[in-house]
Amino acid sequence: MLDLLIKLGLSDKEASVYLAVLELGKSSVQNIAKKSGVKRVTTYVILDQLVKLGVMTVETENKKSLYRAEHPGRLEKILDIRASELQMQRAYLKGNMNQLEALYSFNHDKPTTVQLFEGREGLEALEAYGHDQMIIGSEVMTITPQDLAENVLSKRGKEIESNRIARGILSRAIYVADKEISAEKNNKELRVGIHLSRKELPLNGSFFIYPGWGMKFLSYTKKKEFGILVQSAELADALKEVFELAWDGAMVKKIRRK
């Protein structure tokens, strides 16, 4: 339940205090602090914030403040407030975009950056590289031998994939594997995928395209594992067009197979 409240935008302590009041009913700060595990002084501040958000009310009985949670439906007001704040932030960003773009152009008007990564540790470092620079909700495009990648990157690869999902980075993948990934798993992992057999695409390496940022090339050849990072928005955007052609071709193969 705490996770649900946190996803709505409450902090850990706010969620704990709100849940404590919800379970206790009308109660004093002392009892709420004890139930939530939050320090009493901090609980006072949080309760005041929750009252301002409209999800909590305060009453005075015998000169004592008692707090009561409003109906959970009032939590939707938090989303309204967040939406209003986001709208203002978007407007502020738009109004200052010219200055930000000028700074970006000044600092990024330089040749393409190319880096080599060697060995399995190098591949893991390369695959993780740059995820913290990706815009939430952006898309990565990949053509990859899923069967080989999972064998080479193993547990570390799953951690990297979890990081992508946590940042809300979408994946559009043409992948080689023995079995097709289920629609349920694809949805959970923010992926749209087209499955091909190794006979249809005997691939031994992956490439990832991050439009507007760069590309990664990974080779899984035994004892010669290596990867290359090419940071170039222009080349990434050009390769994106090639990927779209490959995507259409893979889709045709999938339809004909059925």
Description:
Helix content is 53%, strand content 22%. The protein has 258 residues and is an alpha+beta fold. The chain has two domains: 2-73, Orthogonal Bundle (Arc Repressor Mutant, subunit A), CATH 1.10.10; 111-257, Endonuclease Chain A (Endonuclease, Chain A, 2-Layer Sandwich), CATH 3.30.870.10. The strands form two sheets. It has a seven-stranded mixed beta sheet, with helices on both faces. A hairpin with a 2-residue loop joins strand 2 and strand 3 (64-69). Helix 2 (12-24) packs across helix 4 and helix 3 (29-36) crosses helix 4.
Question: Briefly, what is this?
Answer:
The protein contains nine helices and ten strands. By secondary structure, it is of the alpha+beta class.
- Widest sheet: strand ordering: 4-10-9-8-5-6-7
Q: What is the number of helices?
A: 9
Architecture (CATH level 2) name of the largest domain: 2-Layer Sandwich
Average pLDDT value? 84
SSE blueprint and pairings:
Blueprint (H helix, E strand, L loop, with lengths): L1 H6 L4 H13 L2 E2 H8 L3 H14 L2 E6 L2 E6 L6 H33 L4 E6 H10 L10 E7 H21 L3 E7 L6 H6 L2 E6 L8 E6 L3 E6 L6 E6 L1 H25 L1
Parallel strand pairs: 5-6, 6-7
Antiparallel strand pairs: 1-3, 2-3, 4-10, 5-8, 8-9, 9-10
Helix pairs in contact: 2-3, 2-4, 3-4, 6-7
What descriptors fit this protein?
single chain; 258 residues; alpha+beta; Endonuclease, Chain A; 7-stranded mixed sheet; 3-stranded antiparallel sheet; 10 strands
